[in-house]
Sequence to fold (122 residues):
Amino acid sequence: MAAPRRLAAVLSLIATIATACSTGRIPAYVAPSNDTIESGTEMTHGDDGQYIYITNHSSVPIIVTGLHLTSCENIKNRCDPMSLRVRVVPGGRENVATVKPDNPSRAYSFRFTFAWEQARDR
Fold:
């Protein structure tokens, strides 16, 4: 008789786990932080510059409030700090700037920093 009870207990546990893993569960809150907000660059579609993008891996929207290009070499863009108001939804990615060379026949390079804040509305 112990074997049927054990089997019933295992089946009950499996049913409980399956129910907990169903699509109706409440999503976890992931706070926006420097660990969950990511940036990068990729070539433009015409290969004539680079997009600067921000990805939001948190569960709340953020606003990218500023961008500053630094260490600029052969860049058409101004390297002054820029004010921005770009909303990035949870799990989303937005291009915030396009950087192009001043002289396309020469190499170009740059670095950048950005500022962000959590969006006030949800």
Summary: Residues 2-20 form the longest helix (19 residues). The helical segments are 2-20.
